[in-house]
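Our consortium's second objective concerns turning raw sequence data into structural hypotheses that experimental partners can test. To show how far this objective has progressed, the report includes one record in full. It was chosen at random from the queue rather than selected for favorable results. The single chain below, 311 residues long, was entered without modification.
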Amino acid sequence: MQYNELGKTGMCVSNLGFGASSLGGVFHSIREKEAIEAVNTALDGGINFIDVSPYYGHLKAETVLGKALKDIKRDRYYLSTKVGRYGKDGVNYWDYSAKRAKESVYESMERLNIDYIDLINVHDVEFADLNQVVEETLPALVELRREGVVKHVGITDLQPENLKWVVEHSEEGTVESILNFCHLCLNDDLLLEYTGYFQEKGIGIINASPFSMGLLSMRGAPDWHPAPQALKDACTKAATYCQDKGYPIDKLAIQYSTSFNPQIATTLFSSASPKNVQKNIDYVEEAIDNELVKEVKAIIGDQMGTRWKNS
């Protein structure tokens, strides 16, 4: 496993990171014992960065992860979670107020069985008034950083231009990392247009969803996926092509997304299956077939870089 420094945080994180959204049953139902084993498989395989949110599974992901982390030494991992986006009784809601942000941090620590958070993020800022994020949410988290409750502060979003706007309008040193998803994968390289800016600012870059939320898999995108049908069809065609070559598209996808070292500190994938976790760890240790990358991008063709709105 390769390790990269996350901006100026001092955190040296694994090139492949564990996204714990699957522990909340976001993609399909899980078995808790197996999900806990998946966390241990990730750590035993050299992964030291775990990302979660109270939103995932409406508290379930943090709760299950907390059970997994209960007996694991704290120096074996860095833990990232979020504030601002939540859910209750099957209904999503958003609250980016300073009061709720602070409350959320302490609630997350209790669920996760930890006494500090390595990285706290404002979750999916596109759903917020960006001015509120700059003027209220982030200052509340910076206050917790001064108190040592959290070590570092970041922001996340699907739209990289929103991340840049928040950084541009925040006091220097406020935002230490950004997390962007679905924009550094086989069908979309948009994040690369922004990496120079964030690096110049000393801000760490976290990439997520190398499978583009299921587009780059043989199973295909779930029904709720917001991508247009033309892109779904193109990715299905690419997945079939890879399958015929004996090179699963998920293998190529995760190898591709983790190949941008050291400018991308870590790429997050999510699975509640120990077998799948180990499979992905093994994939990133193998050399990528760059010729196949070119062929897949050609198949996706004019759907490369097609965007969609978060939901």
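The partners drew two points from this record. The chain has a mean pLDDT of 96. The first helix runs from residue 32 to 44. Both points have been shared with the crystallography group to help prioritize constructs.
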